[in-house]
Amino acid sequence: MNGVSLSNGARRGWLRGVSVALMMAIAPWLAGCERGGPKDALRGIDVTGAPYGKTLELTDQHGQRRTLQDFRGKVVMLYFGFVQCPDVCPTALARTVEVMQRLGPDAQRVQLLFVTVDPERDTPELLREYLAAFHPSFLGLTGTPQEIAAAAREFKVYYAKVPTGSGYTMDHSAQTYLIDPQGRLRIVLKHEQTADDYAHDIAWLLRESAG
């Protein structure tokens, strides 16, 4: 074999040197893990600093006016949907229940906000019944058609009324936004992602805010 042959002692010294060099190289990464982890460890899309998703003002199912300021100290999961959604919305809400279970005690620091894109049919009473079937902490937000449209524009959410034979349904975006405990939009998660992905990124935000 070509090259320099090392004695056992020299080889051990060389390995120790490599180990020290590797530890020095990954030390900043490890420090990042302690604070919440490097951003490339996120499962969702990092949108930190995005010029949108800064404000939200609607009314919850109990008649209380709500803004993002009300949830400081918590990670907000923001989702746009509608009660008569046949599969996507129920799947998203059921997954959120799984996420809360995975987070354990930290679930108390998470708030799901379900913004209806169908305020014509989704009355506060209907939102109360619908969301209570999933989790008692879930909040439904509604408002005038103009307020819903403004909220959707702020978060770049698409929705549209689609006529059917007996009435109409709603077509809409299905992503979930994560807003950190300081009220800043940070992460976008796709509908296709798992409860583990969601729980991972929420836990990341909670650790970051604690550090």
UniProtKB/TrEMBL annotation:
<feature type="binding site">
    <location>
        <position position="85"/>
    </location>
    <ligand>
        <name>Cu cation</name>
    </ligand>
</feature>
<dbReference type="InterPro" id="IPR003782">
    <property type="entry name" value="SCO1/SenC"/>
</dbReference>
<keyword id="KW-0479">Metal-binding</keyword>
<feature type="domain" description="Thioredoxin">
    <location>
        <begin position="33"/>
        <end position="207"/>
    </location>
</feature>
<keyword id="KW-0812">Transmembrane</keyword>
<keyword id="KW-0186">Copper</keyword>
<keyword id="KW-0472">Membrane</keyword>
<feature type="transmembrane region" description="Helical">
    <location>
        <begin position="14"/>
        <end position="33"/>
    </location>
</feature>
<protein>
    <submittedName>
        <fullName>SCO1 protein</fullName>
    </submittedName>
</protein>
<dbReference type="GO" id="GO:0046872">
    <property type="term" value="F:metal ion binding"/>
</dbReference>
<keyword id="KW-1133">Transmembrane helix</keyword>
<dbReference type="InterPro" id="IPR013766">
    <property type="entry name" value="Thioredoxin_domain"/>
</dbReference>
<feature type="binding site">
    <location>
        <position position="89"/>
    </location>
    <ligand>
        <name>Cu cation</name>
    </ligand>
</feature>
<keyword id="KW-1015">Disulfide bond</keyword>
<feature type="binding site">
    <location>
        <position position="172"/>
    </location>
    <ligand>
        <name>Cu cation</name>
    </ligand>
</feature>
<dbReference type="InterPro" id="IPR036249">
    <property type="entry name" value="Thioredoxin-like_sf"/>
</dbReference>
<comment type="similarity">
    <text>Belongs to the SCO1/2 family.</text>
</comment>
<dbReference type="Pfam" id="PF02630">
    <property type="entry name" value="SCO1-SenC"/>
</dbReference>
<feature type="disulfide bond" description="Redox-active">
    <location>
        <begin position="85"/>
        <end position="89"/>
    </location>
</feature>
